[in-house]
Design a protein that fits this description.
The complex is a heterodimer of chains A (110) and B (127). Chain A is mostly beta strands. Chain A has no helices and nine strands. Helix content of chain B is 0%, strand content 50%. The chains are: A mainly beta (110), B mainly beta (127).
């Protein structure tokens, strides 16, 4: 299984919206509605932000939303805030009890 | 408080072995499917493998790059997950995290969403 494809970087100004893509194949992202997104600040462990494409765990602000179309999933951060600056990783269930991740996207709040 | 704490990382030479531990607390460890994830310096996350709970069959899955070299085990009496790493290569250099999915209502997400993570332990493979 190959890693999912994410853009290496994304940016936006405070208050704006930014969308990060995550492209897989018909065997992973396209096959299952089990895409997750993680936020990771430098030197910290990842934090689950989105699961099952568009569901938010308790405590995650509704500024974070997820979607999927075909083999590509997306994470949108609305009303950007300084604390949103972090790395964002997507993952997908890939069948056969295996999970795969993307390469990560560094989000910069300008 | 639900907590995972990894230990055992360090500097080893290529070809050597190392065993990582992940101590769990704050939940019923025996019911949890436990996962290892690693992150090479400056890189993205990489799924390493997962150990199902014994009640779910206790099966173990591995990522292709570590299959046949790494062994995941668990001791439910000690609430501890292990990762035995053999024949280590420079490309195994990474922070190693243990992690766990979650259950929400009647739906559990063990293999698709990792909600609890340890702080990670660094493994460096270098001569």
């Amino acid at each position: 299984q190959s890693a999912l494809t994410q853009p290496p970087s994304a940016s936006g100004s405070p208050g704006q919206s930014v969308t990060i893509s995550c492209t897989g194949t018909s065997r992973d992202v396209g096959a299952y509605n089990y895409v997750s997104w993680y936020q990771q600040h430098p030197g910290k462990a990842p934090k689950l932000m989105i699961y099952e494409v568009n569901k938010r765990p308790s405590g995650v602000p509704d500024r974070f939303s997820g979607s999927k179309s075909g083999n590509t999933a997306s994470l949108t951060v609305s009303g950007l805030q300084a604390e949103d600056e972090a790395d964002y990783h997507c993952s997908s269930y890939a069948g056969s009890n295996i999970m795969i991740f993307g390469g990560g996207t560094q989000l910069t709040v300008l | 408080e639900v907590q995972l704490v990894e230990s055992g990382g360090g500097l080893v030479k290529p070809g050597e072995s190392l065993r990582l531990s992940c101590a769990a607390s704050g939940f019923t460890f025996s019911n949890a499917w436990m996962t290892w994830v690693r992150q090479a310096p400056g890189k993205g996350l990489e799924w390493v493998g997962r150990f199902k709970s014994r009640t779910a069959g206790g099966t173990i899955e591995y990522a292709a790059p570590v299959k046949d070299r790494f062994i995941i085990s668990r001791d439910d009496s000690k609430n501890t997950l292990y990762l035995q790493m053999n024949s280590l290569k420079s490309e195994d250099t990474a922070v190693y995290y243990c992690a766990m999915g979650f259950c929400a209502g009647s739906s559990c997400h063990w293999d698709d969403a990792l909600a609890v993570w340890g702080q990670g332990t660094m493994v460096t493979v270098s001569s």
